[in-house]
Structure prediction request, 385 residues.
Amino acid sequence: MRFKNRLDIGRPVGFTLIELLVVIAIIAVLIALLLPAVQSAREAARRAQCVNNLKQLGLAFANYEANQGSYPMSYAQRAIWDPTNACNTAEDSGWGDWSPQAQLMGYLEQNAVYNSLNFSIASAANGLDNGVQATAILTKVASFLCPSSPPAIGLLYCCAIIPGSNTNPGNNYWGSVGPTVCPWLSANPPGIFAIMANGIGQSGTAKIGVSTITDGTSNTIAFSEWRMGDFNQNQLSIQDAIDIKQNVGNFGCWNNMNNNSSMPGAGLPAFTAFLQTCAGAAPGTLGTKYNKSTLGSEWAQGMLGHTLGTTLLAPNSSYPNCNMEPWGGDMDAPTMLNMSSYHPGGANMAMADGSVRFVKSSTAMQVIWALGSKAGGEVISADQY
Prediction:
């Protein structure tokens, strides 16, 4: 019969240090293995919500056309010009225009916000409305925000509607003006949306509806998504709009690119030179007003960079967005603003029939042009994007 050593009597039973370290190591490995799956699941949920937002926007867009007989344009309600306040009137290039998104609010179950908007004055009419519609304009509308994107920061550009508290509401979804940098020079622009300049469209001469989309509503982009700006002029990001500060060569609408600077009419060599010029200018804009980082800051104003974008490049292109504002102001000038997102591999787009599809970052630019044009006569299959 074997007796226990006297030293064993009363010895506590437990894990050794080595055993404890092994268990901790195993748990760490399991967490490392599971974390990507959890993050992937969360992104899938965010992406699903993003798709749903675009779906609702597409359906509202279609219902608007069915009730009104045409799609909402970005139109200008002209205010009395006040030379002491540059932020109070509508301009042909979009400043002070009302966005299609604002006009669709009633179809997005946002009746309270819609009824608070005063469409009888310009959307940037701080000097005229005394801030009476500020609460509505500054409202964060969940239907315009993709959960995959960080929220907008900073204050609403230019007009201090409520000094110190006018935080950018943000907008991830833009209406397509098609493959053009100048959506206001033609009564029949290439895309679905346009900026109604010089009275065009006010008398119904430029109304765009289902019948004008001869390429088919299922083959034409109505809305897509972009990453909101990082509001940081000291760093470069794919959503920045690089202002090349002046019209160079044939890049300006008014410098022979053609009637409305649409593609492919402008010519691939000219467009390629344009892209290279923008890319080359990007580093020099750091820390200056020419690094425009306010993309999607709000949803009320019908202007490129705020609520309208272009279909010229595939999502998350290696080329930057580009703006041609000689005086370095807002983006109410010839501008290229492409699709971008935080979703892996591409971005979502809502077609004119209300369906939502995913377009890959590897899609050829000519396919993007075709998807953006409403009456270009192109034949595009789903496997091309």
Observations:
- The CA atoms of residues 162 and 368 lie 40 Å apart.
- Residues 79-91, 198-205, 254-259 have pLDDT under 50 and may be disordered.
- The first helix runs from residue 17 to 68.
